[in-house]
């Protein structure tokens, strides 16, 4: 049997009743975090543009945009929600391959709402899409694959296009396609997947809004593949086979189908590698941000006292233009730029949409401080990563008061690597409340948190989608316009 039919069979067998407890719990945590990120994204420049585009492309009223009150076509709503979840780079990662949720969840949300599926069905869809995507990340080339004795660099081709298979599989099941149609949808999706463009993007300044992969387009492609298969289109169910399959025409450096299928029914891999973000910034800076926040709190260091800062972090991005530049021209720049994130931390801005408001992006004080930041690759990064795949060692040296304050950490907050770094349910709830604070009242935020954590009791996802619509819909609270660079 070819690989696509095997994945279809896995999806069909992975009903809620067959899911392990840890898979159910992590799926609900993923949903909570993602809705919060989308609500925050709704209040910044990228969110404004995404909503405007989605309204222009919409037809029938089928599914809701998170927080805005708009009910659009499935494709338009999925587009907007994908862009919102990823708008300020606050969304979780599943490693490998990295960003997964903004590419697979929006289509499932739109389909579950439009089809009036249950919370149990949505949990299963979240689990299936993340599990399949994680396995593709293990089977294909990963930008943190270490060659002994060599320093990591961002490869010439990298990205997250393989997530289209997990997203399409989940949406097909929610739509009620049969096994043959689902296989066709996945085959069609593979040929519709966007090119692997992350490596070019990481070397581009200023950073454009499409980022490393446009979330909204991926969601639309998944839904389109489902609709085409339902309409009678045939698809390439052997797209993963042989020397000229998906991996080859997407430019992957490797293809290991055994990793895709290994213990497929017996072991769920994604819960152990799902990482949540405490900061609205590329995950490559998070270890050094942990160090900075701790140093300035313990030693009561003020921005005015600091002469310079040296950071040591991920080798493959430390010197990339998008990460190492000392100017901010676009919102995407701010989400990747190491010196900008350091300035936000030093000046004590609460991590959240505040980092990406217009007043922050244009602040002469914050931008001037970036000149004090020196960015270096950590010399032990590859060695430790080889031994401990969850490690992301980072180090910070703050020169102030004639003294050098130093801190080094091996793991980042939000990582499941240790009980101390894992983000608890309470941590996620606090993050959600802050992300939602410009769109939802505190009472509504708590209602959404409770509903998502009890998702299996929801009979119709459409009712849940209404709950997370903003109850603070005046322009002053929702559409601030504060993040245009």
What does this structure look like?
- This protein has 24 helices and eight strands.
- It folds into two domains: 273 residues, 2-methylcitrate dehydratase PrpD, CATH 1.10.4100.10; 127 residues, 2-methylcitrate dehydratase PrpD (60s Ribosomal Protein L30, Chain: A), CATH 3.30.1330.120.
- It is α+β, with helices and mostly antiparallel strands and 485 residues long.
- α1 packs across α8, α5 runs parallel beside α7 and α5 packs across α23.
- β7 and β8 form a beta hairpin.
- It starts with a helix and ends in a 7-residue tail after the last helix.
- It has a four-stranded mixed β-sheet with strand order 6-5-7-8. The protein has a two-stranded antiparallel ribbon with strand order 1-2.
Task: Let me know the average pLDDT.
Answer: 94
State the low-pLDDT regions, or none.
474-485
CATH superfamily of the largest domain: 2-methylcitrate dehydratase PrpD
Fraction of residues in helices? Answer: 40-55%
Distance between the termini: 52 Å
Q: Work out the number of β strands.
A: 8
Domain count: the total is 2
């Amino acid at each position: 049997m070819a690989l696509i039919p095997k994945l279809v069979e896995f999806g069909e067998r992975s009903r809620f009743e067959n899911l392990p407890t840890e898979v159910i719990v992590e799926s609900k945590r993923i949903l909570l975090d993602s809705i919060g990120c989308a609500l925050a994204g709704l209040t910044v420049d990228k969110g404004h543009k995404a909503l405007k585009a989605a309204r222009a492309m919409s037809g029938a009223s089928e599914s809701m945009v998170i927080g805005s009150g708009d009910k659009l076509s499935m494709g338009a709503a999925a587009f907007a929600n994908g862009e919102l979840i990823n708008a300020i780079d606050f969304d979780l990662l599943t490693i490998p391959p990295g960003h997964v949720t903004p590419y697979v969840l929006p289509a499932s949300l739109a389909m579950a709402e439009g089809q009036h599926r249950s919370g149990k069905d949505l949990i299963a869809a979240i689990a299936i899409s993340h599990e399949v995507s994680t396995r593709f990340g293990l089977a294909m080339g990963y930008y943190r694959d270490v060659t002994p004795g060599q320093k990591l660099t961002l490869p010439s081709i990298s990205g997250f296009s393989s997530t289209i298979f997990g997203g399409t599989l989940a949406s097909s099941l929610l739509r009620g396609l049969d096994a043959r149609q689902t296989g066709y949808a996945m085959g069609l999706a593979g040929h519709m997947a966007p090119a692997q463009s992350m490596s070019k993007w990481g070397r581009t300044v200023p950073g454009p809004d499409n980022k490393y992969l446009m979330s909204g387009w991926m969601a639309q492609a998944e839904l389109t593949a489902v609709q085409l298969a339902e309409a009678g289109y045939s698809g390439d169910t052997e797209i993963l086979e042989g020397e000229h399959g998906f991996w080859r025409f997407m430019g992957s450096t490797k293809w290991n189908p055994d990793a895709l299928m290994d213990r497929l029914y017996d072991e769920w891999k994604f819960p152990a590698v799902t990482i949540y973000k405490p900061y609205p910034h590329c995950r490559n800076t998070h270890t050094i941000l942990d160090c900075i926040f701790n140093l300035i709190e313990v030693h009561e260091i003020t921005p005015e006292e600091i002469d310079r800062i040296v950071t040591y972090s991920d080798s493959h991005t430390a010197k990339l233009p998008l990460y190492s530049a000392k100017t901010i021209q676009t919102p995407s720049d701010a989400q990747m730029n190491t010196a900008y994130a350091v300035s936000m931390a030093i000046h004590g801005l609460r991590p959240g949409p505040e980092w990406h408001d217009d007043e922050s992006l244009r602040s002469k004080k914050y931008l001037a401080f970036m000149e004090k930041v020196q960015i270096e690759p950590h010399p032990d990064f590859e060695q430790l990563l080889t031994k401990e795949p969850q490690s992301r060692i980072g180090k910070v040296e703050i020169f102030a008061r004639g003294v050098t304050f130093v801190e080094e950490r091996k793991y980042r907050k939000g990582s499941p690597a240790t009980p101390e770094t894992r983000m608890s349910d309470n941590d996620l709830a606090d993050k959600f409340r802050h992300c939602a604070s410009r769109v939802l009242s505190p009472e509504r935020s708590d209602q959404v948190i409770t509903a998502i954590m009890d998702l299996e009791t929801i009979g119709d996802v459409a009712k849940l989608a209404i709950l997370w619509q903003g109850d603070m819909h005046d322009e002053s609270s929702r559409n601030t316009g504060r993040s245009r660079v």
